[in-house]
Amino acid sequence: MPYDDHAGHAATLRAAERRLQAAQLASDVGALDELLADDVLFTGPDGSLSTKADDLRAHETGHQVLTALKEEDLRVRATPHAGVTWFLGALEGSVGGRPLTARMRYTRTWLRDGGDWRVIAAQATFAGAGMPAPGDG
What we know:
- This protein is 26% helix and 49% strand.
- By secondary structure, it is of the alpha+beta class.
- The protein has a six-stranded mixed β-sheet.
- Strand 4 (82-95) and strand 5 (98-113) form a beta hairpin.
């Protein structure tokens, strides 16, 4: 019974994932700071690794701006102390001043720390329709 949800663990993790999505869309660095573990690592679609500081800086400086984020599917697995979310959705915005329109799959690993969920690892992949052409960002 590793994913027994009688205590509502999946529901609280689903809420945390949606808070993260809202924080990304608003570039809310304060909320992102709370939702991301200090030692989180992100694997980008190109295989690059970035840190929490990199992510916060991208939002603070406007290097990464989301103007739309539409969730198509969200799957959640949670235990009392750990969980994984699988987000599939369409994103619009810009990265480094270049327009971005893409369908993305994000897999995030979360730990519950003092009652609060925090992302400890994340990976992003371009998914199907909406993938940018090579060289399109």
